[in-house]
Amino acid sequence: MNLCARIENLNVSAGAQNILNGLSLECPDRKITVLVGRSGSGKTTLLRSLNRLNDCFPALRTSGRVELKIGGLLRAVGDVPLPELRRRAGMVFQSPNPLPLSVARNVLLPLQLTLGVKGTEAEGRMKQALEQVGLWKEVAGRLNQPAASLSGGQQQRLCLARTLALEPDVLLLDEPTASLDRHAAEVVEDLLLSLKERYPIVMVSHSLIQARRLADRLAVLRGGALCRTLDAAELPAGGEGEVFIERLL
Ligand SMILES: Nc1ncnc2c1ncn2[C@@H]1O[C@H](COP(=O)(O)OP(=O)(O)OP(=O)(O)O)[C@@H](O)[C@H]1O
Predict the structure, then answer these.
(1) Half-sphere exposure for 72 (CA within 13 Å, toward CB)
(2) Residue with CA closest to ligand 1 atom 5
(3) Are 175 and 204 contacting, i.e. CB atoms less than 8 angstroms apart?
(4) What sign has the CA pseudo-torsion 209, 215, 216, 221?
(5) What is the CATH number of domain 3-248?
(6) Which residues make Cβ contacts (< 8 Å) with residue 52, sequence separation at least 6?
(7) Where are the domains of the chain?
(8) Does the beta carbon of 16 sit less than 6 angstroms from any atom of ligand 1?
(9) pLDDT(1) > 90
(10) Contact 150, 103 (CB under 8 A)
């Protein structure tokens, strides 16, 4: 199996609390891996270990091996310079977090600061990224308006466009539709299904309906350990699939 991530014997602790216990997981390339589990089971901590975001929390201690496919090769994330890792493993969070700038500057500024791309080239890339997330037609006439004036679903797609403009190798999504209404969530879900042809996706989801709809591979966490991985084909069809996942949690 071609992999976008390989995790071996990952342990994360905070003082005496073990958050992840010897967790090993392989995530397929160009597919969607969905992490599910009860609240507090360690899903976000696992996701954050992929781009070393846990390093931002001084209380957390990490051991084990985490590899991501970067530039076509699986590389230990500890060996990748942080700015490169954060760009290559693009992350989108639960609530949309656009910069307090215009729609256009939200994509143009990171392009300039991270890749040094400006002017016409940057504008071309911005348009391409906004098209990729299906936002271009909606915002073409309001590029100079504040990003905060967009709807929640549009803001989340803008955040995704900002990430895609930086040409990531993998997308890490932490409950990307949690703050959206059902319709906006479905728009983002459809978008993710279309993006997986180009980008492997590892995402956390609380919604079993969403997990069943999007996952090619499911990783079920319980108490900081991986209790089961399964392919979508192993799930019963329809609503039975959700019941099946619920029983595993
Ligand atoms: N920076 C931190 N410092 C101390 N403890 C932490 C830290 N981050 C997470 N934890 C603890 O680790 C455990 C797992 O948290 P995590 O956010 O990974 O779970 P989760 O499965 O994503 O939960 P939820 O579904 O509620 O978001 C929790 O008990 C949490 O309090």
Answers:
(1) 0
(2) 14
(3) yes
(4) negative
(5) 3.40.50.300
(6) 77, 78, 82, 85
(7) 3-248
(8) no
(9) no
(10) yes
Burial 163-173 (b: 16+ CB within 10 A, else e): bbbbebbbbbb
Pocket test for ligand 1, best of 10, 13, 38, 43 (most atoms within 8 A of CB): 43
Which position has the token pair 């969530």? 185
Residue 174 tokens, joined? 């932490």
- Indicate which residue's Cα is closest to atom 24 of ligand 1: 39
Residue 38 beta carbon below 6 angstroms from any ligand 1 atom: no
Interface confidence (ipTM) of the complex: 0.97
What pLDDT, in 10s, does the model give residues 42-89? 999 999 999 999 999 999 999 999 999 999 999 999 999 999 999 999
DSSP 8-state symbol, 231? E
